[in-house]
TrEMBL record, chains A, B:
Descriptive protein name: Helix-turn-helix domain-containing protein
GO function terms (MF aspect): DNA binding; DNA-binding transcription factor activity
Entry annotated with the keyword Transcription: yes
Native species: Pseudoduganella guangdongensis
Any single GO CC term annotated in Swiss-Prot or TrEMBL for this entry: cytosol
SUPFAM superfamilies noted in UniProt: cAMP-binding domain-like (SSF51206), Winged helix' DNA-binding domain (SSF46785)
Location of the HTH crp-type domain: 161-234
DNA damage found in the keyword field: no
InterPro entries assigned: cNMP-bd_dom, cNMP-bd_dom_sf, Env_Response_Regulators, HTH_CRP, RmlC-like_jellyroll, Tscrpt_reg_HTH_Crp-type_CS, WH-like_DNA-bd_sf, WH_DNA-bd_sf
Phylogenetic classification of the source organism: Bacteria, Pseudomonadati, Pseudomonadota, Betaproteobacteria, Burkholderiales
Amino acid sequence: MLSTQPVSHEAGRQRQGRLWSNLKEVCDLLHLPPISINSEELLFQHVQFKTGQRVHTIGQPFDMLYVVNSGFLKTVLIDEFGNEQVLAFPMKGDLMGVDGIHNKTYSSEAVALSDCDLVLLPFKKLTTLGRTHVELENMMYGVMSRELVREQAMIGMLGALSAEARVARFLVTLSDRFSQMGYSSKLFNLRMTRHEIGSYLGLTLETVSRTLSAFNEIGLISVDQRTIGIKDVDALKSLRRLPPSRTRSKLPARAKAAAAEAQVPLLATL
Amino acid sequence: MLSTQPVSHEAGRQRQGRLWSNLKEVCDLLHLPPISINSEELLFQHVQFKTGQRVHTIGQPFDMLYVVNSGFLKTVLIDEFGNEQVLAFPMKGDLMGVDGIHNKTYSSEAVALSDCDLVLLPFKKLTTLGRTHVELENMMYGVMSRELVREQAMIGMLGALSAEARVARFLVTLSDRFSQMGYSSKLFNLRMTRHEIGSYLGLTLETVSRTLSAFNEIGLISVDQRTIGIKDVDALKSLRRLPPSRTRSKLPARAKAAAAEAQVPLLATL
DNA sequence: CGAACCATTGACGGGGCTCAAATTGTGTGG
DNA sequence: CCACACAATTTGAGCCCCGTCAATGGTTCG
């Protein structure tokens, strides 16, 4: 039902019956300092996608980047057996399509999980413009680097955290994102299935479901189908565990602040 | 010992007592089409690092990209407990430092696993130059996008493959890389410890060790400490398994070629 | 209103982590 | 060059987390 999703598109204006955004609005969306560019007339077109529609598919010729203005999506890899591997859940302010630059074809698939409004960024246009506007060029590099850092963090999580910790982090991250977007950080609806969450976190859907139920029972959250209430953010944030432990480096003087106080004793002890 | 490591540096020339490379040589190193740029005099300095030395550390101000000309390294994340998470094992032709563009500080640490020779690419110089040379700019975007795609594949692996499959893939990838570099693809030395491999693959060092021993026993490889002999590449390549299975998408008509013939029945059945 | 799809929960087993010890390799100082 | 300390690797035993299989009920949508 998407009841909590706003229909208003702050960024964007009508023109020729469609929505368009100027560069400043795109920068705002990406959480980047606005670029003082003379060409105020530079506009980017929006496109709408309905739930279930594909924004781009694997192998499709690349020519566009996309910025999410509203709505929720998933990006997935498809392996040789047809299995989906969820890579991310892009939402407002996220950039999509960067993986297509290399090879000139998209290497992932983007699917709308709800009705979406996306800003189209023709890549050629962007680079051409960047050549004369240093700030734009820096923005491009910055955004791509940010994506890379994000993925590195993801690798770190998949490589080092337990199922409980992954789910907890997932919830905290979602909460933060919703908060950024002006929604409640304490109560929100998941736009994806347990299956998709599991794929994203490297877990099965049953483990995701069980972990959510466990969090619910000990009062960290409330769960009702796709409605999640965050009850104890701090507990969720500090919930860790190190299955591949003994992975400690021998340079203890490194942790910026061994300020990691006593951790929640994890669920098993309850 | 590094007995199999060549001391020669194909790319690079002496000048002022140091090694320098021009743009064409850098492109070759990165496996990119050579850029026909007029400034033949454009040279990039090399720097040498000894085993154990850090190329850059987390938080250090960013201003350089690095291309590996020879030697082996690891890039790592450090979590709040001081634990290392290995992100990659850069070797000849790999680019390092891209994660530093965003935030102007490196978000990972690069450590030399052997004596190394790196080409320094001052980022400012690169972008400035890219503004007047479209090809160079495209190269920059392309390389960054390639890194991103690589990390996406890594996420897919960590999220979907069993321990055996991860180790098998790791070996095949290494074999390919060594082959590319002109070494034997059938016999090579690991430059990293079991611990580092485990961190990279999201496993414990014991699991890595046991898996290698198991591969050895069934004749897929030979193992003697850090010397690996590849006996049956095809078996290693086709060795998969899908712990988070049932992850099959409901659109079976997708797999580009259900050409996935019968797989090796995995170790457990032997 | 029925047919998918989705979520929850239980039972069970095994893959991989933990703890432990023995062996071998590696680096450093005398 | 050798001896010693330490790091790396291997291997075993045990167990627990989480994947697998299965059944039920709820939700959605044509």
